[in-house]
Amino acid sequence: MAEPTTYHIQKGRLVKMKDPGKFARGDCFLVDAGTKIYLWIGPNSSVDEKFLTAASAVMRDTALEGKGDIDRIEGGNEPDDFKALFDDFQLTDEDTEGILKKVQMETHEHKLWRVHREGDETYFAEVKLSKDSLKSDDVFLLDAWDDIFVWRGKDATSREKFDGNILARRYDAERVGVQEIELIEEGQEPEEFFKSIP
């Protein structure tokens, strides 16, 4: 049986692993085994890595038209059937820097994220917290600590808008605190949105 395809979450992108059975405790991985999708969550991984892994799985499941079976696996507690997928399953102590910095949790720093499509992939990356970063052909998530705004550019595709909504929900689920998610159309921004972005 061929090994499944394993992706490493690296700063908002899925990077295909050359050595698919090697899992780092400080990172998160998505394992695509056809209709079965595994989220492998490293015990030392960061909030953003966990979020991006879950979001990536949702995107892949969407591509499978909801027919994918998504399983979450806590690193170090792998079931035998998961280990059996790999010729040489092993855990390492490596760690790749995440996107969200721990200081954000202490200082309530605001963050702006861009959601855009390239080909068949959706990408999610932090951009400069500025009105100038907003582009009409993309969707943006503004984390204003107590609120999460989903700003939808007038030229953004329906898929980008859909993915932005899913990402906002996953982001909210992974981050500490309680947030309200508010959808905003370009040109109809409420005053509190612009108060949260310089």
Task: Write a structural description.
With 198 residues, this protein is of the alpha/beta class. It has two domains: 5-92, 3-Layer(aba) Sandwich (Severin); 102-195, 3-Layer(aba) Sandwich (Severin). The chain is 25% helix and 33% strand. It has helices spanning 47-63, 80-83, 102-107, 158-174, 191-195, and strands spanning 5-10, 13-16, 22-24, 28-33, 36-41, 69-74, 90-92, 111-118, 121-127, 139-143, 147-152, 180-185. The strands form three sheets. It has a five-stranded mixed beta sheet, with helices on one face. Strands 9-8-10-11-12 form a five-stranded mixed beta sheet, covered by helices on one side. Strand 1 and strand 2 form a beta hairpin. Helix 1 (47-63) runs antiparallel to helix 4 (158-174). The longest helix has 17 residues, at 47-63.
Structure described in brief:
Helices cover 25% and strands 33% of the residues. The protein is built from five helices and twelve strands. A hairpin with a 3-residue loop joins strand 10 (139-143) and strand 11.
Give the helices and strands, then pairings.
Layout: E1 5-10, E2 13-16, E3 22-24, E4 28-33, E5 36-41, H1 47-63, E6 69-74, H2 80-83, E7 90-92, H3 102-107, E8 111-118, E9 121-127, E10 139-143, E11 147-152, H4 158-174, E12 180-185, H5 191-195
Parallel strand pairs: 3-7, 5-6, 11-12
Antiparallel strand pairs: 1-2, 1-4, 4-5, 8-9, 8-10, 10-11
Helix pairs in contact: 1-4
